[in-house]
Amino acid sequence: MVVGELVERRQSIIIGGGPAGYTLAIRLAQLGQQVTLVEKAQVGGSCLHEGCIPSKFFAKVAKEWASLQKLAMYGIQIEGQTFQWESAQQQLQKIQSQLTKGVEALCQKHDIEKIEGTAMFSGENRIGIEIGERFELYEYDHLILATGASVERESIFEPLGAHCFVGGDIYGIDKLPSSLIIYGADPYALEVAFTMKQLGVYVHIVAEPDSFMYDSSIEKELRRQSKKKKIKWHTSEQLEATLVEERVHVKIEDGVIIEADALYTSGVKRANLHSLNATRLNFQMNGDDLSVNERYETSQNHIYALGEMTGREGGASRAIADAKRLASIIVGEEVLEESPFFPLILHTNPPVVSVGLREQEMDERHIASQIPLMTSGIAKVNGTTDGFVKVITNKETTLIEGLHMIGEGAIELSAHFTQLLDMVAKEEDVLYSVQAHPSIQESVIEAVENLRNLAIHQ
């Protein structure tokens, strides 16, 4: 490796080309900054290549495969249909390639200097970048870390070896297992559970008590849907995992032993700092996450951090929003106040959205109402009557404080739900609007009307 003698100066250097990194790079360039984006692999990060896009792609595959069973109700008869896992993986790769090229084109459009290499700290206000056989030195006005987080299996699953899939690994396997144990009730785990079940895998979910992130009524309905789909759900605070004759054995608290071909876990995330040689700067940490303040500043001058490495809730949705706010901070523009609301979504079947106050957080000031999708004409037409729309308001002020839905259309309505909360909407704001008919949106109005015992279809 040849070490360059010159030290180059850059205005803003971003390390990491995932959703947080490339969003920040583009926004800074739009605001007139000279931007350098360093990425050692492909732009798009784990979201595009391991997490968001693969999981949502296979959720779509599973949904379409399951929908074939409903075609007979519309008089459509199809015989001899088959599902090919390998063909689906090839299509995913095409989509990922297209999206990667799209991000690269955007960087080029905005004159962002993109360096393919491995960055590391080499001193105060200085980084080195290993580019093949070269090593170049850079100083900066602003350095932003957006290197994401690595995913590791929990130590209790070490005995399982290759029979334990972690994070996005599950979507790259050569063939589907005949049976799978899902550990956890986090979004990734639940999406894997429903996807795999609909693709013909026998699924068990093993989750700790009180680990569900969504509204309690959503959990109840999702468990009911699991039962309908013959997904076995177990609750256990402790478990023991072993490998017996190439089969996974998981022993839970009541002494029951669950067997399967493999086990999936979303794993434990840790900020990606090792390759950066970050120990020499002594960053302040919050457990396995890099600590930042409300301005995304780390404990080191002129160094910011975004995305998964900071441990902030909200995933890529929050990372993208944070990137735009940080761009305004760096260039000295007025910064929009951070929204306290972000939608928790599940690409299960049926899908889920949960925003704001949950039923388990309600007190005597609140009132809740939910309308089953069974009352919706369009849901009947589409054969998607499972689920409901739920609204939580303040009885005195009529402010809407929580919106939740499980059912077809939930993902599309997530933006509407979030905007209602951000705009401090009241019951009358929903009742005033006229919605298309027939549509799922009508169920939102019905849920609010039901607070006043005025729902037409209830």
Structural summary, described in words:
It contains 11 helices and 24 strands. By secondary structure, the protein is α/β, with parallel strands linked by helices. It has 3 domains: 2-150 and 269-331, 3-Layer(bba) Sandwich (FAD/NAD(P)-binding domain), CATH 3.50.50; 154-266, 3-Layer(bba) Sandwich (FAD/NAD(P)-binding domain); 344-451, 2-Layer Sandwich (Enolase-like, domain 1), CATH 3.30.390.30. The mean pLDDT is 94. It has helices at 19-30, 45-49, 52-67, 85-109, 187-198, 216-228, 315-331, 377-382, 410-422, 427-432, 442-451; strands at residues 2-15, 35-39, 113-116, 118-123, 126-131, 134-145, 149-152, 164-166, 179-183, 202-207, 232-235, 239-244, 247-252, 257-260, 262-265, 268-271, 285-286, 289-290, 303-305, 344-346, 352-356, 366-372, 388-394, 400-406. The strands form 6 sheets. Strands 1, 2, 3, 4, 5, 6 and 19 form a 7-stranded mixed β-sheet that branches.
Shape, principal axes of CA atoms:
globular
User: Which CATH-level-2 architecture of the largest domain?
Assistant: 3-Layer(bba) Sandwich
Low-confidence stretches: none
Radius of gyration: 24 Å
- Name of the top-level CATH class of the largest domain: Alpha Beta
Give me the count of strands: 24
Report the CATH topology name of the largest domain. Answer: FAD/NAD(P)-binding domain
What is the H level of CATH, i.e. the homologous superfamily of the largest domain?
A: FAD/NAD(P)-binding domain
The span between the termini is 73 Å
Instruction: Return the domain count.
Output: 3
